[in-house]
Amino acid sequence: MSSPISRDDVAHVARLARLELTPDELDRFTGQLAAVLDHAADVEALDVTDVEPTHHPYPLRNVQRADVVVPSCDRDEVLAEAPASEDGRFRVPPVLGEEA
Amino acid sequence: MTDTAPVVEPTLPDGWELVVGLEVHCELSTATKLFCGCRNRFGDDPNTNVCPVCLGLPGSLPVLNGSAVDYAMRLGLALNCTVNPAVFARKNYFYPDMPKDYQVTQYDLPTSTDGHLELPDGTVVGIERAHIEEDTGKSTHVGGSGRIHDATHSLVDYNRAGIPLVEIVSRPDIRTVESARAYASELRAILTSIDVSDAKMEEGSMRVDANVSVRPIGSDELRTRCEVKNINSIRSLGRAIEYEANRHIDLYDSGQTPRQETRHWDEANGRSTSGRSKEDSEDYRYFPEPDLVPLDPTGAQVDAIAEAMPPLPSARRHALADAAGLEAGSVALVVERGQDELALAAISAGADGGIVIKHLENNLADGTGELTAESFAALAAMEADGRLSATQAKTVLTDLVASGGDPTSIAAAHGFEAMDTGELDAILDRLIADNPDEWGRFVDGDRKVQGFFVGQIMKATKGQADGKVVNMLMQQRAAG
Question: Which of A73, B60, B170, B447 has the most CB atoms lying inside 10 A of its own CB?
Fold first, then answer.
């Protein structure tokens, strides 16, 4: 049986998640993820024609709040938690190269 | 689902047809954000409307704003969509303006699907879906020239993060630049008339992205499209689509194919530049948002929203057009300006629909002031039966707008009295005698000299003559 996931797939998903994996880790995770997907294949084999799709484990619907303003946080307190700030805003590295 | 024959834009080379779908994001004008009670307001000091939820701090949990859901359903119904049970999903990607590293949106089960929107000229554009999602924060790129490519760092304001949006995705039914602009205007008119968004493109509360492709006329294929972003006015929308379509045609003409990608419209230079390659949707690794339960509005809830719906622009156009005896497209401007109520009242008070619409379009762009339906109807009647010329009617109208009153007495105060045709006959006799050659040409059917005679009569009467009466007299004389 061919593997349900290739090493390239794992490398691609790792890149999307911004994870830097070593070649050893790539091999290891490819094997582990293949096992997980094999289990999903077992579930896929079941006949679920009469089973309602589950979008959420709790039988709750339409949990909503009223559209009423509550006080926000103090800005100085918020920005004090940030690695860097400038002009009342969060300062972050340039975004160039993020979209490789 | 376009029900009119596609019109070929003169801006495209012969043989090519435009295929455009628009994605419009509009911010809902709720009091608070989508998942927290922070204020939803444009223009506040940076990062003053933020809390652990919209900053994506660990341990915080979203609670859905009921008004945002109501607004989204109202919008869906206004776009003739089906309102469905819906599930929120996480769209995963990394960008500093999105603090959670995922955007909460609706994916495979959106609130509204399968609607349509009718443009003033009768063109119908299909709506694929209208789903609820949260807005991102706002980045400002600093250093270098302030552009993203050579910035040294970016500053982020999260006031906008978590503001409720509805993204309205049209079908690729748009075939002309003019229709694309009309679609955006119509959508803006709908958003404001149902009071769910202020829809200001200049403040970003309505943002339009265009999916543009082209194909040879007669083909029904869908070729590679590019998504053009950063369009900040309806005028830019037209320019951006035109540029992009021509870029595609140039590529095809030189044996190349456009690459599917996101492009940025550069208004100052009138061109689009390449952005990132469009990610596949699987790259976003959507999955159901575990922190939010499904939405399942009852039929009664949806019915109540439908019943409370104010009249929509297209229905208002049809109502006015029917009353005025005109085409829906020719009353669009009056409806857009919200002057249809006055027009309908004047028409039901007996005014000629054509005269009412003509004055509203041409002479009342700056508002109708003190003008009432009754005085408007009385004025229209005086113009219709020749007691006032069009020019005189305009003067009386200006007074009515400024200070109200009775059109008959205003006309009298200006000394406007219909000239009796005997006086006009005498002037015409003199003109014919002085210009026998011109008159001969008119009698022989040369319509071009008609303007000459009308002009001379207007000059002789200082504009007091009614153009329609003059034309009639000339026709009678020529026939006799």
Answer: B170
